[in-house]
Amino acid sequence: MGGLTAKAMIGRKPCSAAPVPVDVAVSSDIAPAIKTIARSFDSRNLVVHGHCVTIRVTGGDTALQADQIDGQAPRHGQAAPAAWIPDSSLWVDVARTYPEGAQAIQAAGRSVARSPLLLVTTTAVAARTHLFAVPPAWTTLLPPADGGPPSRLGLSVELPDPADSAAGMTTLIEISRVLGDNAAARTAITRFVLGAQPTEDFDSAAGLRQFVQSTLPPFSRQAVTVASEQAVLAYDKVTPNAPLDARYPTGSAASLGSPELDYPYVLTTSKAVPRQAATEFGDYLHSSYARAAVRYYGFRDAAGAPGPIPLFTGLASQPLQLASAPSASEVAANLQVWQKLGLGSRDLTLIDVSPAMSHPDGNGTQTLEQALTQTAARGLALFPDSTQMGLWEIGSSSSLSHPYHQLVPVGPLPASYGLLTRRTQLQQIIARLRPGSGALALHDAIWAAYQHMTATYASNYANAVLVLTSGVDSARGDMPLASLLRKLRALYNPGKKVEIVILMIGRSGSFTAMQEVADATGGVAYQITNPAQVGKIFVEALAHRMCDQGCAAP
What's the start-to-end Cα distance of the chain, in Å? Predict the structure, then answer.
């Protein structure tokens, strides 16, 4: 009896003598709540397989945690966690697409907290713009051309980067749900992405304070963003005299309401001791104490029940229409859209200076070359500094063996090229271009450019050959169209896509032939009759990045 009593006392003694730490990686916004719950859990002195254990909570950036768990980023000496609480199940879906993530992470987890997303601005901006005069929907974030607020408001959309933020990704998904899936929708979502300002995630009072600062002098921007309910409550708590104007978006369909951050708890280890301890901690996260702690920190509990919401925040009186959860396929598709549109461009531009370019453009007194020069100048101004670009002149040679003349090699636009930047050099060269007396071997020139861009393909860019031409092939002995199409199709590699984008100036050339050439590489052709069209075409050409070969032009 004495021995059994001693054994029982040993089993009950505190686990203060070198307990085994069980690591739990946690999204930084919910880390304070989980640490509080972990302290209560540790007071139970859990023993697993004869080992005292303690829960060690590490808060951090969810995107980085996902990369470390799925093997895409190094741990830098950090221990592999036994469990993980990202801010959204979206991260679980993404991480499990990698072999290491699929092996480490259980397929589904139980939510430990929830926090709906809101459209957020300041009361001053809301008063000036009347942004929320009607119940807001996701169209509030769209450009005017796609049903958003009028341009006179000068609204700036601050979008947490969807590649690093669940709030940003769910926003992108809701926008894509609103717009649909067709050529017009691709152009519209491209306009949205180009118009939005990617930012850090506003997932805390400090983050929202930075957002508010951007609306004050000297910036004075009419800004709107997306943030979680918990972050808004945290900000309003420390600034009760100047709360944010935050609204739950609503829509005509169940898919178009307020998405939730759902904070799933997933196991990420197969080792017996930490797995058992992490499992028991996961169960404890659903205890009445844990649910109360989660609500105390401004989250809703796993069942969606909120804590007390102060009246001055204006949230308690608003209807909350929860959006249906996105599917794994929606997440993958929208992440791909964001990545493709975010790629820098690497372009070799071919500009036609053949005699045909001296002909009238058919719209007035200017020539095709003047229309091309205006189009090229407008287009160059639209390319961001992340672009690499080079320039070939075509149609100036009298020899088929030299169907082009390199004016500027491909390189970064802002980098020095001689005494000037490459962008400035291109601007000056384009302004001086004049039609010559040479012959245009258009097919040979396109083939040479396509070979060059394929041989120098860069995986972290959208690689393209841009052709600005009249489309009038004037060189005897130039490669036949059928031969060019056959060679392009043979060299085309969808895994290392180099597309041809053609802007045919005027109506003299065969636009059908230009379309065939572009189609052979999954590219697109446009007929330009007015240089002012180039802005619209620039957006449509970027939207075409979302298509595989055979996708119809917008």
Answer: 85
Which domain covers residue 381, as residue numbers? 343-546
pLDDT digits (tens, 9 = 90+) for 334-371: 988 888 888 788 999 999 999 989 888 767 668 888 88
Q: Note the pLDDT of residue 364.
A: 66
Residues 11-28: pLDDT tens digits? 445 555 678 899 999 999
Q: Give the C-alpha separation, 115 to 229, whole Å.
A: 6
CB 141 within 8 A of CB 192: yes
What CATH number does residue 72 fall under?
3.40.190.10
Could you please report the per-residue DSSP string of 35-102? HHHHHHHHTT--EETTEEEEEEEEEE-HHHHHHHHTTSS--TTPPPPSEEE-S-HHHHHHHTTSHHHH
Reading the block at residue 227, the tokens are 């943030």
Together in a domain, 88 and 201: no
Q: Which residue has the tokens 């149609």?
A: 395
**97 pLDDT higher than 60:** yes
The count of structural domains within the chain is: 3
How crowded is residue 381: how many other Cβ atoms within 10 Å of its Cβ? 12
For residue 7, the model assigns a pLDDT of 40
Kindly report the backbone phi and psi dihedral angles of residue 548, in degrees, each rounded to the nearest multiple of 5, phi listed first. Answer: -90, 175
Are the C-beta atoms of 385 and 344 separated by less than 8 Å? no
332 and 355 both lie in a single domain:
no
Q: Say yes or no: 11 and 54 in one domain.
A: yes
Residue 516: enclosing H or E segment and its boundaries? helix 511-519
Residue 9 pLDDT level (bands cut at 50, 70, 90): very low
Q: Within a domain: residue 309?
A: no
In a domain, 389, yes or no: yes
CA distance 362 to 529: 8
Identify whether 330 is part of a domain: yes
**Measured distance CA(42)–CA(45) in Å, rounded:** 6
Q: How far is Cα 70 from Cα 95, in angstroms, rounded to an integer?
A: 5
Highest mean pLDDT among 42-51, 72-81, 243-252, 393-402 belongs to 243-252
Do 243 and 284 share a domain, yes or no? Answer: no
In this prediction, residue 553 has a pLDDT band, given cuts at 50, 70 and 90, of very low
Locate tokens 């393209």: which residue? 464
* pLDDT value, residue 382: 85
Cα separations (Å) of 35 from 39, 41, 232?
6, 10, 21
pTM for the model: 0.81
- DSSP letters, 366-401, are -BHHHHHHHHHHHHHHHS-TT-EEEEEEES--S-TT
Q: Mean pLDDT, to the nearest integer, of 414-436? A: 92
